[in-house]
Prior knowledge:
single chain, alpha+beta, CATH 3.90.470.20, 3-stranded antiparallel β-sheet, two-stranded antiparallel ribbon, 5 strands, 43% helix
Amino acid sequence: xxxxxxxxxxxxxxxxxxxxxxxxxxxxxxxxxxxxxxxxxxxxxxxxxxxxxxxxxxxxxxxxxxxxxxxxxxxxxxxxxxxxxxxxxxxxxxxxxxxxxxxxxxxxxxxxxxxxxxxxxxxxxx
Length: 126
């Protein structure tokens, strides 16, 4: 396999907390899938987990070279978690189309967060 794209993004947790406070459910439903919302709100510090998933979506769009917008939307990128804790992606609609067009075979993703920052890194292989 060869590397088709690499993406990284870092987000301030406070920025996501501000959006959650200001726009609440409207923000959550615009950016995150039902599964992501359920997971994040079940955690002690939801904003940290939302921020990590927000960073993951940005990193994926960068790895594909598109950014979030017309080609792929926020909810086209769905971050799941295995029982082991390892995150993995499920792509829908625009993101899934890009993956097929680019002959993506796998995506490796890593997430991390602190009280103040969340970071995501992705490698797309084909």
